[in-house]
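Good morning,

Both structures are done.
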Amino acid sequence: MKDYNYPLSTPAGSGSHSLQVRLVSDANIGVTTATLPSGQTKVADATGTVSLGVIPKGATVYITTEVRNPAPEEDEIQLAFDLDGVEILVHSNQKSVAADVSINLDLTFS
């Protein structure tokens, strides 16, 4: 499991935000959920995008992505997180370390 705390300078409360998880490695299979400050949980759609809506200043959105790569020819699991179309984080690990990965990302809007 990987935990990331990511303070954001993206203006909170200034509009609706979206998070996209891009499965970079071939054959990755993933599910992403976002727990919003309201306690509501949202699951990514088929494109890997979660609509976060308007996030109040100082609020944190908790993101969990469960990903695995069943392809024997693929040595690495790699994925990227984009907030409002801007890449904020790339995660990578060798399948020899873990073939199933849980990534927890805490996005704090400041």
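Second structure follows.
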Amino acid sequence: MTLAAVLCCAMTTTVFTACGGDGDNSTTPEEHSGNTPAYVEMTFYMWGTQDMLDITDMTVTYNDGTGDKTETVTTVDWVKTVKAALPVSFKFERKVTLKEGVTLSDDQTYSYINRYYYNYKILSANGTVLNYYESSAKSTKPAPSNVKGSIVNESITSGRMNISRAFDFYKDGSCPQTAFPDKE
């Protein structure tokens, strides 16, 4: 056999092998080995103050990979951990409105925190942590701002107290939304 014939056979075998299969290249997490990303586990923190609970209604809508869920914030700090198989998209969104009948006074100061923090782990199917990431915000709760009622009211009515973040995790565990510093 000539060299050209051998090379032709080798290239044909490679093409048919690479293109073979049933067209479904997806795998389930159970098929992954110890070093292959299979899951993401994310924890998201939204900090608040007692004044925020007293004068506002806060709801958080989040998507844990199975659909949107909404919770009313009833504690000063809201924390949620979600885990799902890769690929997946997570969303966290806090809406803040002034409670009905509440009037804020400039004679009084109110404390509030409009910050959040998150971290995530990329896990193999057996639970080994392959990658860990945390936002540039400190993982410790920041000190609250103490401001006059009119400033708090403007922050609420303008939507500046609302927080919204979305994360798309690809099959390889990468997340383009964390490739750049947070805009907090």
